[in-house]
Structure formats: C-alpha cells, structure tokens
Write a structure and sequence with these properties.
The protein is of the alpha+beta class and 295 residues long. It folds into two domains: 5-63 and 209-293, 2,3-Dihydroxybiphenyl 1,2-Dioxygenase, domain 1; 72-199, Signal recognition particle alu RNA binding heterodimer, srp9/1 (2-Layer Sandwich), CATH 3.30.720. Helix content is 24%, strand content 37%. α6 (267-277) runs antiparallel to α7 (285-293). The longest helix is centred in the first third of the chain and has 12 residues, at 81-92.
C-alpha cells in the first residue's frame, strides 16, 4: 500500500544519476518509474520514482532553481558500525562533511554530511535501538522559525491522521545560543511515516525551501481540499499542487490518480495533463481526468 506521505527531491539535472546511486546503496531498493515531461517552465524535466529500503522518493530534474540545505536531512539508521562506515564512504564521495564520522554521546558511530548533490544525510549506528524506518526525514528549525519545532510537530499531528509524538529531548541551561526548553531532538509520526525535528539557534545561512518537499497523496477531491486548506499559509507560494505551510516547509498535495497518469507512455495524454496542471494552484481531479482522456 502506498504511504500517505512521501519525499520529493528537486535536482538541477541529476535525478536519474542520483536515483542510480541511492538505489545501489540501500538494499532492497529499485527504480519504480521514470517519466519525462515536456513543455514545462523548466523545459524538458525528468521525474524518477524510486523505492529506497521500502520508502518512496520522487526525484525531479527541473533546473537550478533550488538547492538542498541541511534544514531537511535524512537520518539513516544502521544496524552495525560497518554498515555506517560503508554508507558514509559511498555518500561522502564528492560531498562535504558537516560533522565528522566518529563516536558521540548519542551513538558510537555517527556523522553528518552533504553528498555530491548537496543533499544532507545523518548516518547513525543504532546499537540496541530498534530500526522501525530505515530513512527518517529530519526537520531543522532555524532563523525565524527557530524555537517553533514543538509547535510544528503539534500542528502536523493535528493535520494528519494516525499521528503520534514520541520522545522529546530538550535543550537545558547553558546550551546557548539554544534556548532552554526548545527541542534538541524529537521523533514523531504522521500517518505512520516517521519524522524527526530539532531547533537550532546557530548562525545558519539556510532554511527550508522547495528543493525538498513532502507529497501528500489523496484519493478524493475532498481530501485534497481539506489538506490544502489546513496546510497552505502563503498564497504566493501556491502553484502546480505545491504550497508552503506557516513554518516555510513545502508540501505537494496530489491526487493518487496522478500516479497512473505519470506512468502512461502516450505522449499526447501526458502533454494534455501537463498543460492542465501547469495552470493550477490546487489540483482539480476532474479537470486532470478530462485532460488525460482528451474530453
């Protein structure tokens, strides 16, 4: 069954290459579908859907409009120190180190890096802790939204069903510049998909942007309308199913029907659907379906 929430990554032109690297690294992974859309504002764009260790990611090549930042990183849970070392070695080639791979209070083997595409990964040996999800998106609240991680978690849990808030670690006295009581690290789940969040008051020169967004897959128009109404907080950011919430995080609210449309090999159908959704802000299922069928 398809997860309700999946991850979307915006590349300049490396989506196919990155899909090959990531699926070769994580066991049990594969490329599920590749589609090329023509006539977009970015010209010809590739959309590659992959399964990474049982989790769906969509990779898009659509030009250099957005660059990945550590505001969203991906925590890889490793069963052994050897696996952590191997994962680090593969992802670090051509990339840069944010925290050296080594021993830390929270893990005997941990490191934080940006890979050759700029995407941030946290590699961690889990020790005796159970691994429920191989790759966990970690949201870092910095700048204007620093200190708002807890509010965000509460808000997201109110939007999505089957949501749970897990353990919360807080900053204590003497951990400046972070304010006492704000979130050092917290886990939560939205519709069964695990996330983590943290506040960071350091002098960061980045924040959330459209390079990383989360796709909410909806069966009905009512579902789209409800989700859109709850999440969208910046009308100027609404376009082609994309929106930004009150914390600046990007989401895409998409109909499940779109998945099947994107798999068609009929270029005319694909062109009609592309032309239709490029005119939209919030997706309209009936209009997309009529365009696909050529009505």
């Amino acid at each position: 069954m398809k997860p309700r929430i999946t991850t979307h990554l915006w590349f300049d032109k490396e989506a196919r290459e990155a899909a090959g690297l990531y699926t070769s690294l994580f066991k049990g992974s594969k490329v599920k579908n590749t589609t090329t859309l023509e006539g977009t504002p970015s010209g010809s764009v590739d959309i590659v859907t992959i399964d990474l260790a049982g989790q769906e990611f969509t990779l898009l090549s659509a030009g250099p409009l957005f660059k990945f930042t550590p505001a969203v990183s991906f925590l890889v849970a490793c069963a052994t120190k050897g696996e952590a070392d191997e994962t680090w070695n593969v992802l670090s080639k051509g990339g840069s180190t944010l925290m050296e791979l080594g021993s830390y209070p929270h893990s005997e083997r941990y490191g934080w890096l940006q890979d050759r595409y700029g995407l941030s990964w946290q590699i961690m040996f889990m020790g005796d802790r159970p691994i429920r999800q191989k790759i966990t998106p970690v949201l870092m609240f910095v700048g204007d939204v620093c200190g708002k991680a807890e509010s965000a978690i509460t808000f997201y849990a109110s939007v999505f069903h089957d949501s749970k808030v897990g353990d919360i670690m807080r900053y204590g006295v003497g951990q400046e510049p972070d304010r006492e009581g704000t979130i050092k690290f917290a886990r939560f789940a939205l519709d069964g998909v695990e996330f983590a969040a943290m506040d960071s008051a350091g002098p960061h020169r980045f924040t959330f942007n459209e390079a990383i967004s989360f796709m909410v897959h909806c069966e009905t128009q009512k579902d789209i309308d409800d989700c859109w109404g709850k999440l969208s907080a910046r009308p100027e950011a609404e376009q082609c199913g994309w929106l930004k919430d009150r914390f600046g995080l990007s989401w895409q609210v998409v109909p499940n029907l779109m998945d099947e449309m994107m798999k068609t090999k009929d270029k005319k159908k694909l062109a009609r659907v592309t032309a239709a959704f490029l005119k939209m802000k919030k997706f309209d299922i009936k209009t997309l379906d009529r365009a696909f069928r050529g009505d």
